[in-house]
UniProtKB/TrEMBL annotation:
InterPro entries given in the database record: GAF-like_dom_sf, HTH_MetabolicPath_Reg, Tscrpt_reg_IclR_C, Tscrpt_reg_IclR_N, WH-like_DNA-bd_sf, WH_DNA-bd_sf
Keywords of this entry: DNA-binding, Glycerol metabolism, Transcription, Transcription regulation
Species the sequence originates in: Micromonospora craniellae
One Pfam entry name: HTH_IclR
PANTHER family on file: HELIX-TURN-HELIX TRANSCRIPTIONAL REGULATOR, ICLR FAMILY (PTHR30136), HTH-TYPE TRANSCRIPTIONAL REGULATOR RV1719 (PTHR30136:SF35)
Biological function: May be an activator protein for the gylABX operon.
Chain ranges of the HTH iclR-type domain: 48-111
Protein name listed in UniProt: Glycerol operon regulatory protein
GO biological processes: glycerol metabolic process; negative regulation of DNA-templated transcription
Domain IclR-ED, chain residue ranges per copy: 112-295
Amino acid sequence: MIRALTTCPITPSLRSGTKFQNRPVGSSGGRVATQQGAAAAAQATVLSQSIQRALDVLETLSAEAPEVGQTLTELADRLGLPKSTVARVLHNLEVRGFVEQDGLRRYRVGMRLFSIGGQALAHSHLRVTSRPYLEDLTLRVGESSYLGVLDMHQVLYVDRIESPQPVKSLSPIGSHRPINATAMGKAIVAWMDESDLRRLLTRAGMASRTRHTVTELDTFVAQLAQIRADGFAVDVGEWDEGLTCVAAPVRASNGAVVGALGISGPSWRLAGEQLNDATRLLSKAVTELGAELAPAVR
């Protein structure tokens, strides 16, 4: 076994002594109290529009060519919001360091957000425990290895070890990929309750990346049944033509699927016996990793 290195609704309280006067149900005081209670409950469930817009801006900057950045006009078009509204959001985010603007007036995610995200990754028990297994897989197979988790309706890549070879697969840490177009996504959701999965994919949609991507829900559900039988998932050219990935679920000690480990490389290299060897090593790695994880991990 590979050992991981050690790393490092609010309920308002009643004021003491407060007395309440009993009133008839039909009295005006009762109606006022009822109306106030209903208004407070409604207010508690209403999302803040300004916060939601700020988060929409950050997510859009992260998803659409983050290394290139976007102009104010591009962001406003993608968000379907007035430029004045987006400009106000950007200004507030820029002041706090969550967004940066270059000399060409293109906006990118700022280093402040990177710092916060880095803190989350550094203290992720799953990531820390998985790291030695990723290193060992890349060393033995010679291809890039990944750790991914389910983030709403996509796979979030939270760690990777790059292949030492000049031609390699690259999925940056922090990037998202569609569930239906990746072996990582399939390995994570294959054991999900089918009704929950159908609702998730119906709401999120099934992205078409290549001619090999499965975009029909019933076909995808049937494919997951085979993945459960095999214990691992493979995609050949579903995310990117010429790229193959094999992935297996990571389970906590209580059996819950908490993520997936994957190995990815060029299809002309990761095939035949090489793919079989990678699958065997991957299955062994997730079994040993799962034995190290607590019932609940993050």
